[in-house]
Amino acid sequence: MEGQNFGLKNNNLDLEKSSAQNDLGSLLREKGVENVPKIETNFFFHKHSTAEDGQAVGERLKNADILIQENAGWDSARLDIFNDVSNGTLTPEQAMDMEKQNGKPFLWKDFYASLLDGLYKSEKKVMLVDVPNDNVVFKNLMGLYASNGAYNNLINKSLPYEETLRRIGNVSKFESDMQKAREDYILENLPEALVEILKQNPDLQKKENLKILFSMGGFHTRLYHEMKKSGNDVSREFSSMPYNFDPRMTAERNIHFKGMEESKSLLPKIALYLILKKELPNLDISHDVVSVFSDEEIKSLYEKYQTASSEEFKEYFESIL
């Protein structure tokens, strides 16, 4: 028993050593960067949709050397535009207009307008390590959103309840698989992108502490956990605390971390959430609203939805809420 305990302890040490050797600093040295500073990565998770979110990124950028901005579907022109705004050769307004004219308008206009304001003339370096526009994962995600209208078309009165749950499960798993593949791509490509920016900017290698601001949507907290497991110096912040995910995204994240088998029980909650989003768009559909209904009650609500007009369903739901 004593020998086995010593062996287990040594195995743990080996795992810790292996993990530490996968941190960014070690990977950069392996790739030939001569001077590698201590790298501190701060993840800032937010909803990336409002001007307030963009302003919050800009505020945190003041204490960073490099910005890594979530931007699925980017290309080299988009990266150049970010850096040109940072250098002051493009104004935020010019950048927004340029991409619009190029047929690639910034999504979440308010968010990016305020983010670019914070980036303007900051001289911060920008890295994009998200899936680019020619990546199959990005194409699959865009196909999913186009064909399902961001899940809105999954609710169909003509389909039986069980079939609707099956469709929700399939789409949810597919998106989870694609988002996980996207995050794996980010983690895999981060060291190489960092090598390139350090070689292009040798002054960054002279810093004692190189500070990276990693700006991501709140769904992607797995990135933080994976980098921490690899021995990196990482911290995280959220745009609000508590950070509230809507019921559908909560279920999606459960699938993302625990898999479909352990998350099947959440599919009725997604179904109810989607029905309410469709029929009562002005209702604040919180966890408190969804959680009060059992699976059987949700099934009954679905059957009521199948036979009722929108106004009848709305009156019925509000009477039982």
Structure description:
Strands 3-2-4-1-5 form a five-stranded parallel β-sheet, sandwiched between helices. Helix 8 (161-200) packs across helix 11 (247-258). It has helices at residues 2-20, 24-30, 51-61, 76-87, 92-101, 109-119, 136-148, 161-200, 202-205, 222-229, 247-258, 267-279, 287-291, 295-307, 310-320, and strands at 38-46, 66-69, 125-127, 209-217, 233-238. It is built from 15 helices and five strands. The protein has a domain at 2-151 and 203-243: Rossmann fold (3-Layer(aba) Sandwich), CATH 3.40.50. The chain has 321 residues and is an alpha/beta fold. It is elongated, with a radius of gyration of 23 Å.
Write the layout of secondary structure elements.
Layout: H1 2-20, H2 24-30, E1 38-46, H3 51-61, E2 66-69, H4 76-87, H5 92-101, H6 109-119, E3 125-127, H7 136-148, H8 161-200, H9 202-205, E4 209-217, H10 222-229, E5 233-238, H11 247-258, H12 267-279, H13 287-291, H14 295-307, H15 310-320
Parallel strand pairs: 1-4, 1-5, 2-3, 2-4
Helix pairs in contact: 3-6, 5-6, 7-8, 8-10, 8-11, 8-12, 12-14
